[in-house]
Design a protein that fits this description.
The chain is of the alpha+beta class. The protein has one domain (6-129). It is built from three helices and six strands. A hairpin with a 6-residue loop joins strand 1 (6-11) and strand 2. It starts with 5 loop residues before the first strand and ends in a 7-residue tail after the last strand. The model has no long low-confidence stretch (mean pLDDT 79).
Length: 136
């Protein structure tokens, strides 16, 4: 399988601030990566505005509930995540350039961010597909 460069938006271990991270918990070279991805994706299917923070995709349902999007050359999965930040709107997401299935993005994402999957209090479960997954 082709290697996927995955970015993570959310909380690093023991830090309740939500930031964009490059693999292995490094800061991305571009400090505006989060805003740049949001502009490429366009309006949120949920809130009608280009913003990754504050639950761009994920429903405010139960922890682990996730949504999938694949548009304008990017794929994203966002889920409700209260494993570090207990506020009601806390979320986390994986983003990768290209068209990827949910399974491909989740697998590459968890491989790229050691310790993340183990800290989650609920498994990531897709409940919304805002775009169809690419055929494989």
């Amino acid at each position: 399988m082709k290697r996927i460069l995955v970015f993570f938006f959310g909380c690093a271990n023991n830090d309740s601030g939500h930031y964009m991270w490059a693999p292995h918990w490094r800061r991305p070279n571009n400090p505006n990566a989060c805003d740049n991805i949001a502009r490429v994706l366009g309006d949120s299917p949920v809130k009608g505005r280009p913003q990754i923070d504050n639950g761009w995709l994920a429903p405010n349902g139960r922890e682990g509930q996730a949504a999938y999007v694949c548009r304008n050359g990017w794929t994203g999965i966002q889920w409700r995540d209260n494993s570090v930040d207990n506020r009601s709107g806390s979320n986390a997401s994986f983003w990768a350039k290209g068209e990827w299935t949910a399974a491909e993005l989740l697998s590459a994402g968890f491989d790229s961010f050691p310790g993340l999957e183990e800290r989650l209090r609920a498994p990531v479960t897709l409940v919304h597909h805002y775009d169809p997954e690419p055929p494989r």
